[in-house]
Amino acid sequence: MNLSTASINNELVSVNITTYDRSRLLARCLDSVLRQTYEYLEINIVDDCSNDNTEEVVKGYQLADRRINYYRHKKNKGNAAARNTAFLKSSGIFTAFLDDDDEWIDDRKIEKQLDVFRSSNDPMLGVVCTGILRTDINGENRSEKANRPKNLVKTMLRGGLIHNSTAFLRSNVIRKVGCFDEKMPRGVDSEFFRRVVIKYGYHVHFMEDITCRYYENSPNRMTSKVSNRNLIAVRKANSYLLRKYFWTNLRYPSVFFYRMKTVVKTQTSIVLRRVLK
Based on CB atoms within 10 Å of each CB, which residue in 124, 136, 160, 161 is the most buried? Predict the structure, then answer.
């Protein structure tokens, strides 16, 4: 990668990483960014007030690479707030996200996604995403390609479609839609991309490439634990989404009833767990 050429083209890419108590995994994540063939990057790491040696790990990397920036919250604010801090500190024309427990496995990921934007004549192209290699708790791998569904709006209303660690966006898209919703108790990424596509009408390019490894067995994955706290978060998130996308949900009754069913089911589970405790 020719840095001077990238500089002239003003195509700085911000790689935003948020982390909390995962210093052991963060090194793997960072190494995958530093292997990228596209070198004109700024790497913004937001530490959401970790209790481990995250700061020490990052400072070690900073000594070797001046592209790495480190920001630490004075108190734990949650995933959405950390993502927003990273974006507010960003300077790139484009933004790529990477979760601290995932890693990029295609060294040309950024280069390829940037080429999609360069070659596109679509002024509403806002997001380029890719497939993932999912690694389960037993170490088994399963490739999942990023395919455009027949009904993009309906699919995105129902659940997650774009994996955060594969997403590559124009930074002005993030600025226009208003960053991540800090009221969401969970499902922050899905709601953000849902808003980009449904409320603001941006287009998504689905690349066939598998560029990211997603670890299902990494510590602290919320979806790996069933507790009253997580059930309450699921109920609150679905209730919030019903209100936020009410009129759009009404256009797709199956999605509306899916959300309602989830709210009722999780509330029933919460009550039963309390009764049987």
Answer: 161
> Helices 54-64 and 23-34, interaxial angle, to 10°?
20
- pLDDT for 2 equals 39
CA distances from 259 to 25, 62, 114, 118, 192 (A): 34, 44, 36, 38, 17
Q: Is 108 in a helix, a strand, or coil?
A: coil
Which pLDDT belongs to residue 10? Answer: 62
Cα angle 156-158-163, degrees, rounded to a multiple of 5: 50
Enter the tokens of residue 241.
Answer: 């989404």
Distance in angstroms (rounded) separating the CA atoms of residues 33 and 43? 8
Q: Does domain 3-223 have CATH number 3.50.50.60?
A: no
Which amino acid is located at 50 in the chain?
Answer: S
The model's pTM is: 0.89
The domain locations on the chain are: 3-223, 225-276
pLDDT tens by residue, 8-46 = 356 999 999 999 999 999 999 999 999 999 999 999 999
The predicted model gives 43-58 an average pLDDT of 97
**DSSP calls for 194-258:** HIIIIIT--EEEEEEEEEEEEETT-TT-GGG---HHHHHHHHHHHHHHHHHTHHHHHTSHHHHHH
